[in-house]
Specification:
With 312 residues, the chain is of the alpha+beta class. It has two domains: 211 residues, no CATH class; 101 residues, Sandwich (Immunoglobulin-like), CATH 2.60.40. The chain is built from eleven helices and seven strands. The strands form two sheets. It has a four-stranded antiparallel beta sheet. Strands 4-1-7 form a three-stranded mixed beta sheet, with no helix packed on it. It is elongated, with a radius of gyration of 29 Å. InterPro entries: CarboxyPept-like_regulatory (IPR008969). It holds the Pfam family CarboxypepD_reg.
Length: 312
């Protein structure tokens, strides 16, 4: 998400939390309830596409590179042993069919390097019994075959990840437009139903609808949350950042600064763009012990936040 979308999504969380707090007030009102349920259904869709958008393609590419290196290393060893065997047996046909250099495998395109390795594999299988004496066991041939298969399966992953990111970006744009339309043309009007009957709900809703801009001089807080018991990353953990009153950030007109809410993605990671200030951070997820910590966000500096949550 871009900065504007992050700011709006943070506002969505505050609106949702406010409405949940007063659910007993509006749930029997058919008009407000219908509008709210339509709007709140957009939030998990935004979360899903946000998670897809920030998919780490770097890790996928790194995995592909590592598997190629493993495959070529095994292939070159087997090729070397086959060449030794071919020289001893005076088999120029075999020798000519596997004359590949390290540079050949390094520079070959993805599909070409697979073809080269498959050629070496085929020659190894054809002379499997004979090359045992040259240091190539049946397990080594099997390992080479497995390495070729493992590398082949990674070829489409980076492209698929980029395509997924592009699709998610477009989906987010559409979902934010739909969500904002529901807020602006319906929920913001329907809240007037409670202006007299429940002024606290009305007032807090209006405050929740204010967007706190975190762009400009803000600095990102990068974090990751894991399950303390299993070590697995945790998705859907809520991080609420409350600006400390003795910090540097002040709201216009002396009003209280709205909290900024973020949720962790699939790999337990999140990013929050926050103005320079001191924050009390509340970390919570149903079924786990709530944590509260205080961090200082300095302008121009990166703040890392790593959390381990314990089950209740």
């Amino acid at each position: 998400m871009n900065t504007n979308q992050e700011d709006r999504f943070s506002m969505y969380y505050v609106v949702m939390n406010t409405c949940d707090k007063y659910k007993a007030v509006w749930e029997t009102n058919a008009v407000f309830s219908a509008t709210y349920n339509l709007w709140v259904a957009k939030i998990p869709l935004i979360e899903q596409n946000r998670d897809a958008q920030i998919l780490e393609t770097t890790g996928i590419t790194t995995n592909k590179t590592a598997r190629r290196a493993t495959m070529t290393e095994k292939a070159l060893f087997v090729e070397n042993r086959l060449q030794s065997y071919a020289n001893v047996e005076n088999n120029p046909e075999l020798l000519e069919s596997i004359k590949y250099t390290v540079s050949d495998l390094k520079k070959a395109r993805d599909t070409d390097v697979i073809g080269i390795c498959n050629t070496i594999l085929a020659r190894a299988n054809a002379h499997a019994a004979a090359i045992v004496a040259y240091g190539v066991t049946a397990d080594m041939i099997t390992d080479l075959q497995a390495a070729i298969v493992a590398y082949t399966t990674t070829l489409a992953n980076p492209k698929a990840a980029r395509s997924q990111t592009k699709t998610a970006t477009q989906n987010l744009s559409d979902l934010f437009k739909e969500s904002d339309t529901l807020l602006n043309t319906r929920l913001d009007l329907d809240i007037e139903l409670f202006k007299i009957t429940n002024p606290d709900f009305f007032s807090q809703y209006k405050t929740a609808r204010m967007i706190t801009a975190t762009g400009g001089g803000g600095t990102s807080v990068l974090g990751r949350v894991i399950n303390a018991g299993s070590g697995e990353p945790m998705k859907g953990v809520t991080f609420t950042f409350y600006a400390e009153p003795n910090g540097t950030m002040k709201a216009a007109g002396g009003e209280k600064v709205k909290p900024i809410v973020k949720k962790s993605a699939d790999k337990g990671k999140f990013r929050a763009k926050l103005p320079e200030n001191m924050y009390r951070v509340v970390v919570e997820k149903i079924g786990f012990k709530k944590q509260e910590i205080v961090i200082t966000v300095a302008n121009g500096e990166s703040t890392n936040l790593n959390i381990e949550l314990e089950m209740n």
